[in-house]
Write a structure and sequence with these properties.
Elements (H helix, E strand, L loop, with lengths): L6 H10 L16 H5 L47 H10 L15 E3 L5 E5 L4 H6 L6 H11 L9 E4 L13 H18 L3 E5 L1 H8 L5 H4 L4 E3 L8 E6 L2 H6 L4 H16 L3
Parallel strand pairs: 2-3, 2-4, 4-6
Antiparallel strand pairs: 1-3, 5-6
């Protein structure tokens, strides 16, 4: 390892690896057996916060069990009562209950037409989305645009969003608690758009929206009723492969094309 790296380079490495919080109250040299053998000294209440230990391989002592490892912050009640997508975006920008906000560059809310008849909801923003502040603008976004065009759609007549509105560090999948924190905002967005059809892109989005453990492979080709307290009626919902997965597994594009044909047929049934 290059021992001449600057502190900011090391910090950038930690953030890309998903390290976004300290664990101990005092730095520990884990390569020094004498240090490990000594009990940790008490840290004064007003002491300066210690530097982050470079390679925390293990904790010196087991920590007491907490009631919940990932407590879910309460979503302000007014969020569920906002009457416009603009107000919902402002509420999201002011919301500090999702830890992903601390490491992300931009809030990634939605793209497309707020009056669309169909919504596509993916998993989480990637690096390109985080830089631009819009969903699906990287390679997977270009493929999604091609998929939409194949059935006569584009971003002027659909609305695109994600189940999580900030990029997870290192493009890791969002945790269950992170998705749960954002779910009330996702549901309120759906209520405000009130589309005729919802399409979950990928397994993570489907599991979050439909509260299921089934894979996309088992959900494809099925229409499920999606409903919330704020919707006037259930919405027809289905799932298909995420464009990023199709880029890695092009052989699955045939199945995705079948899903798109079914989606177009469903939209035509409302005409």
């Amino acid at each position: 390892m290059n021992r001449h790296l600057e502190s900011r380079d090391i910090l950038a490495f930690y953030l890309e690896s998903g390290v976004d919080e300290t664990i101990g109250e005092e730095p520990i040299n884990r390569l020094d057996t004498k240090t490990l053998a000594r009990p940790a000294a008490a840290v004064p209440v007003h002491a300066e916060p210690p530097a982050l230990s470079p390679f925390p391989l293990s904790r010196p002592e087991p920590l007491p069990a907490a009631p919940s490892a990932h407590p879910i912050p309460a979503v302000p009640g007014r969020v569920l009562e906002v009457s416009s997508i603009e107000a919902l975006g402002q509420a999201l920008a002011a919301f500090d209950g999702c830890p992903l906000k601390k490491t992300a560059t931009n809030l990634v809310f939605y793209d497309g037409n707020p009056k669309a008849r169909i919504m596509f909801i993916g998993e989480a923003p990637g690096a390109e989305e985080d830089r631009h502040g819009n969903p699906f603008v990287g390679p997977s976004g270009k493929l999604l645009d091609q998929m939409l065009a194949s059935i006569g759609l584009d971003r002027t007549n659909v609305l695109i969003s994600n189940t999580v509105f900030w990029r997870p560090p290192g493009n890791r999948p969002p945790t269950t608690s992170e998705a749960a924190v954002c779910l009330p905002f996702v549901e309120r967005l759906i209520e405000l758009v009130d589309p005729l059809v919802i399409v979950a892109l990928g397994g993570a989005a489907a599991k979050s929206l439909f509260a299921t453990t089934e894979s996309v492979g088992r959900l494809r080709g099925r229409w499920l009723p999606f409903s919330t307290a704020g919707l006037p009626r259930p919405i027809d919902a289905t799932a298909t492969f995420h464009p990023a997965y199709l880029l890695r597994s092009p052989a699955q594009k045939r199945g995705a094309w079948q899903d798109l044909l079914a989606i177009r047929k469903k939209l035509e049934s409302f005409q």
